[in-house]
Structures are given as structure tokens and as C-alpha cells.
Amino acid sequence: MRGSGSLVEMTPDPDDELLGDKAVEPRPVGDPRSMDPGAAEWATELFPVVAVGGSAGSLTPFQELLSHLPAEPLVAVVIVSHQDPDRPSLLPEILAKSTPMAVSQVSDGDRAEPGHVHVAPPGRFLSIHEGVFHLERATERGHPPLPIDFFMRSLADERRSRAVGVVVSGTGSDGSLGLAAIRHEAGLTLAQPPDEAEFDGMPGNAIAAGVVDLVLAPAEMAERLTTHARRLAAGSPPLPETSGSTDDLERILELVTARTGRDFSAYKRGTLQRRIERRLHLHGLQNLSEYLHFTEARPEELDALWRDWLIGVSGFFRDPEAFEALEAELFEMVRSRPDGSPLRVWVPGCATGQEAYSIAILLLEALKTTGRRLDLQIFATDLDEAAIDAARAGRYSEGIAADILPERLQRFFVVEDRHFVVKQDVREQIVFAVQDLLHDPPFTRLDLISCRNLLIYLRNDAQKRILPLFHYSLDPNGLLLLGNSESVIGFEDLFSPVDREQKIFRRNEIHRAAHTPRDWAARPRPTHPVRRVGLLERESPTLDLGDILRRQLADRYAPPGLIVDEDGNVEQIHGRTGDYLEPAPGQANLNLLDMAREGLRAPLAAALREVAHGGERTAERDARVQRNGGRQPVHVRVTRLAHARLPRPLFLVSFEPPEEPVSLPEGAKDRSEGSDGRVSSRDRVVQLEEELRATRIDHHSTMRELQASNEELASANEEVQSVNEELQSTNEELQTSKEETQSLNEELQTMNAELRTRVSSLEQVNDDIRNLMDSTEIAIVFTDGELRVKRFTPSAQAVVPLIASDVGRPLSDISISVDYPDLLTEAKRTLRTLTPSLREVSTDDGDWYSVEIRPYRKASGFVDGLSIAFLGITRTKRAERTAQLARALGQDILDTLREPFLVLNADLTVERANQAFYQAFGAEPEETVGKRIFDLGDGQWEIPRLRELLEQLLPKNQAFDDYEVDHEFPTIGRRVMLLNARRVKRSRTGDPDLILLAIEDVTGRAAEKPRDGSEARS
Questions:
Q1: For residue 25, what is the DSSP state?
Q2: Could you tell me which residues are beta bridge partners of residue 620?
Q3: Looking at residue 219, what is its pLDDT?
Q4: Parallel, antiparallel, or unpaired: how do β-strands 132-137 and 124-129 relate?
Q5: Which residues sit opposite 975 in a β-bridge?
Q6: Do 257 and 263 meet the contact criterion of CB atoms below 8 Å apart?
Q7: Can you spell out the DSSP letters for 468-481?
Q8: Phi, psi at 927, each rounded to 5°
Q9: Is residue 263 within 8 Å of 530, Cβ to Cβ?
């Protein structure tokens, strides 16, 4: 069980005292029944609050869930989604059509109401405190907008076991951390099936994180929420009171221990009960008996129950004030250490590793700041193997950005698939291992132990074992960090406070045998069910007349007695023992020998020692006890108790009157009593002599036993010292070997994981290359440095007749179908000079190839062969020939025309002109081609109307015909001409359009008829 706790600030637990009175019923934090009468009004109506989160594709499941919820005021529903902060939200209006409940957008200061749907506004972070909603801008938080996690975490703190978290369709991992927080507080968590969600990112990540109780469709969620709310409203007790509930609970614990091999007897019974209650109601069961049968029929439920017992919310830099105080202490610790010295840290109960990584980050920052070079050794352990695997991976959802400074995120994390992954250099500082803190040997020679979120789940006796263990594990002046609810009260001699408020303590250097962990490494791990019972079972509610009869007879006829352990500590008292025992003055003490009245201490000690250490089953002594001003005879009997279920050796001590009355010498009574019945001085002397004689006998016996014991102890002490030195030396060697082995094993595991990742990546790359080579139409042949074939694409078989068996053959042994006799020579030259070669060659069939020979370079830059690519260019060659032919034919056609003709491009630049044009206007080719038409003949073609037609009219139309131009040309005089133009598109080649301009000289015809100024026709 993870969490943080102390020895004193605890909720009373039913099993903390095995023989105590009826225990106080444990209640979850936040339960209205545990509140003070004067608490705030909101605490008296802690109705469930359901947080429903989603992003892309969540509208449909939102509507379906709300449409199946009843209108009765059972729960308050809060819808939190990813919305565009720059647009007003229409979500409340849309959802209002799907439910009879009132729907509204949340404003700051609104109060949560049952039977109401509250919609979080876009671009704001929503939280809840004492039933009131609070809003803050997302930009104020300085991290990616993860509003679902933010609200659910505040809801978990607010409603505890009455919080419900729901995640539906959406991308990313928002909501996973929030569900974990709710589940830790024994709330209910639900998720939409990923295969039914439009976007499975959010529900899939939450399920993979193991924080979802039930995977249900939205309609089924509504039914489950209704049942859950009605059960909470009915106020059912945490565990139904039945006659067999105690036995059923013990049986469940035995089943869990038998299946997992883990002993949970040291865990607080109240905590275990609340987790069992949660599982019980999760499956719709009514009592422990039904749940016991359920687990017996479904053993996998025991695994889920065990996970529930272990679950804990762990976070980066949790409780920032505590980490700020710890950072200052670690900085001073690092600064004062010489270079090369080790700095060892242990984080027991590390869960999924966030706390261990947080401490590692603080230490790495301190090393960088101080410039020290220390050997960091951080050990992080936990009982949950799955949690340790997750910690080793160091992969966390994007929600951790809310807990880590941006500069730390950038320095110590990398982003992979919307997750933050701890960098390798940080992971290498930590050794993660599975360990049972209560049974496995601890780490030693430590500078810091951070044990937070653990002790509050353990019973007092277990805590009293763990704190001395921590003292034993720490080096002098080592630090102990506890949770904010923990303390070291009762062990102030072991630890002194460094920062009492932040729970940081320093180890005191003392020698106290009572606090030394004895036989810790030798303590066996539980491999079978362990059942912890008291000396007497608690009374059953069922009336047992036989039991009543036995008790009445024992009270009436049995002598007074006690049950004690081997040291005389009283476990149980029967009858009136006041005649023989009285409390010793000073601090309260329930030790038999300390409370024995005068005359009983020596015989009691001798009899108890004889039975406890001498192997006898029963020892008896006659004694005289000082009582009522005189000495009364008593017979003392000490008997070893034999019972298989006793947790340790126990002994029954009884006080009985002598079987025969003590007789006095004849006439003694007459002589001893005067007329007033008083004892004479002579008889008093006789009585004292008898007591002295008995005391001397007991003293002599005690001295002999003490002398024998001293001799045995001296001999044993010498042997123990010798063995202890050997064991200490062996333990140090084993500890060093273990740490080296663990470190090496961790490195091997890390390397193995990296190799698996690389192999997977290589397989992917090989698949990609194979598919690329199979799909490409380029013929490529790869050779090694000696020009032997290594690989080729399928298309290469059309040029080079290769088969699979040709791999490894020299290139010179393979014939090719292209006309390239110098191929081998060019290949050798390229390999020698590392200069690529490019040649166009043809085949006998008339096909053309562009052959490119390039060096084959590895990732390291080393040249290991050649790549010979044959790129088919037959179409290109044919197109070139066609273009050449077209150009040649085109000029011939133009020259055969009797009328002047120009070919212009889109910029009205002359690309071609025919011979008729040159002759008619007295121009030369070099003065015409390449110039704009308006620049020809010193600008003689600068005709405004012609410019308008060519620049404005023609782009909008495809042609104009018979446009008459009457213009004075400086070179040939006045001319009247008809112009015809066509716009020709060249879409296939992608070249710009051309303009064909034909010129017809009609000067003679124009003189015969009046000019009508005809315009162009389009």
C-alpha cells in the first residue's frame, strides 16, 4: 500500500488491538458522518459529482450519457472538454436537448448542484473547493492545456470516495492522471470502449494506465452511475454487519496471501476494509459473504483487489514545499562531499517512479551547480512488479507538465507520441527493484531515505519496526523524508527534526538495543496464508450457552491468574489478582515481576525462568505473600500454553491457596496469642526465621542459576562476537556484490531494452527498404568494394539479367543489355576517385537509359561499394527528337508562307519570324528574334490600338481577325494592313502560351475603297 502516514496521526483501526473493545468504524476522509457538527453547510450534502472528460468526437457520447441519466437530483455532472478558447461555446445549448436536467456553463463562484449539468467554459481551468467552482485562465498555468486532469484531481481532493471520473472519445492522454487520483480516493472510474470511440486516444491511455474500474458504453455508464448514486444516498455501512463478516474478511485475506505470496497482516485493517468495500459494491454485491464466494469463483478478482490495496497517487515534486526544503538539504549535502564519494538514496514504496526521478533531478541539478562529481546510487523499490516496470520505462502522460517546471521538462525529458519520457542519463542513476519492505533486507549506508505515502497504511507494530530499520539503514547524519501526515513520535531518540513542518529528520547517532532491527534479513517471507488472531477470539453475536457456562464456572472456581510472555509482560488477566499484585509506583508498567507483592518476586521469577528457558512445561513454588499486615501462604504455578495459533510463546501464571492449611507447633496458638488475640514476639521471630530460610533457599537457587547463566552467556557472547564479526564482513561483501549485481542487472536490462528497440527499428527499416525496392521502377544494382553484386531491385532484371543466386558474383561476369562497354572501367574509376559517373546509353531495342554510378556510403561515411542506377529515359529521348523535328519543320512551314508572320511568347517577345516578314519590313533575324514587338524597327510597331489588342483583348479571348492598321512606318512608308492573331496553349509541356500574328498588306485595296475603321472580331 502506498501513501504517507505516521505513528500518531492515524485513524483508529479495528485490528490495532487484538483484544480491545469494539473498534471505531473507519470512515473515508470526506464522509459526512466523520465531519464535525459545525462543519460547513456543503459538507452535510456530499452528493456524488461526476466529471466527464472528452475532446475530439466526444459530443455523441456526452449526449448519449446524459440522455440515459434520470432527472432526479442524484449527482452533479460536470462536462470538461477541449474547446477552442477563441470561440464562444455552444455546448450547453446542444447538450440541453439531450437531457431533462438543467444545463448551464460554469461561472466563477457557482455552486455544484445535484440534478444539474455544469459545462466548463473553453480556455479556462476549472476546479472545485467546498462545493464551489473556481476558474482561472489556462495561459496563467504555463503548461499545455489539460483541463480534464486538472478538474478531476481537484474533484478527488474535494469528494474523495464520492467522486466519479468518466473518460470518453478524445486524443492524447488527458484524464489519465485525474482518474488515478479519483481511484486512489476509492472513487469510481469509467471509460468508453476504445473500439467504440471515434478517437481512442484518451480512453485507451487511461485503460493502459490501469486506472479504470469499468469499461462501459455511455448508456451502460448512466445505469451504473444511477445505481452508484442511489447506494451512496442510502448511506450503507462500509462493511455489512453479519455474523460471519469477521471470518469472511480473514478468509479473503488468506486467499489474497495464497495467490500473491504477500502478507498483508501488517496493513491497517480499516484501509483494507474500505478497498474491499469498494470492490464489493463495484460488482453489485451486498455483503462480504457474497464477495468471498465471488472471489473463490473468480481468482482473477484477487489480483484486482491486490492492485487496489497497492494503488497510490504518485507525482513529480509532490508537495512542492517539501521538495523545496529537501532541495536545500541535498544541495548542502552535495556541496560538502569530496569528488568521487558515493551518495546513496533509497525510495521505498516508489510506485511508478515519479518521486525517485524527482530526487534524481534535484541531485543532478545540485551536481551541475556545485561542479561536484559524485557517484549517485539511487535505489527505488516497491511491492508491485508492474509499477516497477512502468518506473523503469520512465514514460508518463503529458499531464505531468502541470507538476514540473518547463526548464526541467526540456532538460530531463524527451517528447514521444504525446508522452514525456525521462532521458536515459537520468534513468541510469536509479536502480528499480521489487521489494517487500516488511520482509526483505533493507539497503544500508544511505544518505537519504524518502518514505512518503506508505506508513499511514501500516499498523502501529509494523511502523515501530520500520522506523528503527530506517535508523539502522542510514549513515550518521543521514536524512529521512516522511509524508506531510507522518511523524517520528515515540522515536525522538533516533531522529531529530531538520524541518518539522516539511517532515525532514536527521539520524541521531545512538546505541539502543531495543531499536535495533533483529534478524531482519533472516525473517522468512510468507509463502502461505497468514492469519493474525488474538489470544481469545472476539465475542460472536451468536448466543453460545456453553461458552457462558464455561465463563461462569471459571469465574467462580478457577484461581486468579495471568497470561504473560517470556519477559513477564502481561497479556491477559483473569480473576481478582489484587491480593498478589499491585501496580509499581512511577510510569505505568504491566510487568508481572514489577507488580508482584513482597515475597512473590523471587519464586515467580524462578518458576517463569524454569518454564521459559529450561524446557519444563510446568513449574511450581510455595511462597508467602505480604498482605494485610501479615504473610499469607500461596502456591504459585507457571504453565506453558500450547496452542498452534499463538503468535509467540505464552505462559499461564496462577495463584492458589495451599492444599493443606499450614500447621503451627503444638501449643503455638496458645502461646502465640494473648488475651487480645495478638501474636507474641517469640512466635513472630519463628515466623520470620521460616521466611528467611525460604528466602535463603530461593536466593541460593537463584545464585546458582545466575552463575550458570553468566558462564553460558559469557561463552555465548564470545561466540556471538566472533560470528558477528564474520557476518558483518560477509554482509558487507554480500551487500557490495548485491549492489554491483543489481546495478549490472539494471544496465543489462536497459541495454536489452535498447537492443530490442533497435532490432525492431531495423526490422522496420528493412521492411521499408524492401517495399521501396519492390515498388520503385528504377533499376539499381548495389556492389561491394570488390564490385561483387550485393543487392538489386526487381526492375534491374530488365537491364541486367540477375537472379537471387547472382548475389556475390563479380560484376564482370554478368552481361548487360545496354550498349555500355566501358561500364566496368567507369565503375572502377568511380570507386577509385569517388566521383559519380553519368552516361546515357541505348539498347538494341531502341530503349534509352541514364546510367549513374555513385559511391555507396555507410552512415559512418565509409565507402563500401557502388550503386549503379539505370533510369529509363526512352520517352524523354523520343520527346526530344520530336521537339527537334517539330522545330525544324515549324520554321520551314513559316518560310513557305507568302505573308509576314510572327510567333510571340506571353511577354510579346518575338520567338520566330518568317522570310516574308524580313523582306516586307527590311528587318534582319538578329534585330527581330528575342525582342518585344513594340521595340522592332526603332519602335515603329508602337501602335496604341495594337498594344491594347495584344495586352488586354487577346488575354481574355482566343483570337481576333481582320483588324485594320493604317500606320506610317519609317522604313517602308505608309501601309494599311489587316492583322489576325491566335492564342495557342501548350498545356502538355507546361510551357507558356504562344501568340501567332499574321500580317496582310492591303494598301492597294484600301486606296480603292473608303476606310470604314473596322474593328477586330473575336
A1: P
A2: 637
A3: 93
A4: antiparallel
A5: 967
A6: yes
A7: HHHHHHEEEEEEEE
A8: -90, -5
A9: yes
Asked whether the beta carbons of 420 and 400 are under 8 A apart, the reply is: yes
Q: Is the dihedral of CA 468, 474, 476, 478 positive or negative?
A: negative
Place of cell 461555446: 89
Count of CB atoms situated within 10 Å of the CB of 144: 13
* pLDDT value of residue 312: 60
Distances (CA, A) of 674 to 667, 687, 927: 12, 17, 170
- Phi then psi for 615, rounded to 5 degrees? 85, -5
Residue 668: the pLDDT is: 41
Contact 80, 178 (CB under 8 A): no
Torsions phi, psi of 655, nearest 5?
-115, 115
Contact 517, 465 (CB under 8 A): yes
Confidence (pLDDT) at 359: 95
For the chain of 1018 residues, list the mean pLDDT of each consecutive stretch of 10.
Answer: 36 34 33 36 66 91 93 91 83 91 93 93 90 79 70 90 92 87 88 92 88 92 90 63 60 83 78 81 81 85 80 79 93 92 93 93 94 92 87 88 89 88 91 86 90 85 88 91 86 90 89 46 40 35 57 72 88 83 76 85 84 82 78 87 75 80 44 49 69 69 74 76 75 77 73 77 79 76 88 82 83 82 88 88 83 84 85 78 64 77 85 84 84 82 80 69 81 83 68 81 66 40
| Residue 404: all three cell numbers together | 514540473
Which residue, 733, 504, 705, 486, is CA-closest to 613? 705
Longest dimension (CA), the chain: 192
- Determine the Cα–Cα distance for residues 529 and 299; give it in Å rounded to an integer: 15
Cβ atoms of residues 521 and 537 within 8 Å: no
Residues 6+ apart with CB under 8 A from 750: 392, 424, 427, 428
CB neighbours of residue 749 within 10 Å: 12
C-alpha cell at 454: 506508505
Phi-psi region of 586 (alpha: psi -120 to 50; beta: other; left: phi over 0): left
